[in-house]
Amino acid sequence: SGLPMTACRLNGYDLPRTSRERFTAGDPTATDALQPADLVFFATRTRKSVSHVGIYIGDGRFIHAPGRGKTIRIDSLSQNYYRRRLIGARHFL
Predict the structure, then answer these.
(1) Which residues of 54-79 are buried (b: 16+ CB within 10 A; e: fewer)?
(2) Could you read off the pLDDT of 10-55 as tens digits, one per residue?
């Protein structure tokens, strides 16, 4: 959740501190209506709880930090792993 926080702060926006808090804030956005800069939320640890967040960049792709010590990367929301774990999106801008 550090990547979205840093990106927003560098652009003058404040976000709630944790990914779970962010999931309850902002305007809910349907995944078929995503716009660049919308946050996409995943349950990577359990099926019910938000545990990962990325920034939608368009064309079905999002940028995220997959874990401590791993390289920031771009992945597709249609990848089986992320598609199964996507639990919602929020618009903040």
Answers:
(1) bbbeeeebbbbbeeeeeeeeeeebee
(2) 888 888 787 888 888 889 999 999 999 999 999 988 767 888 899 9
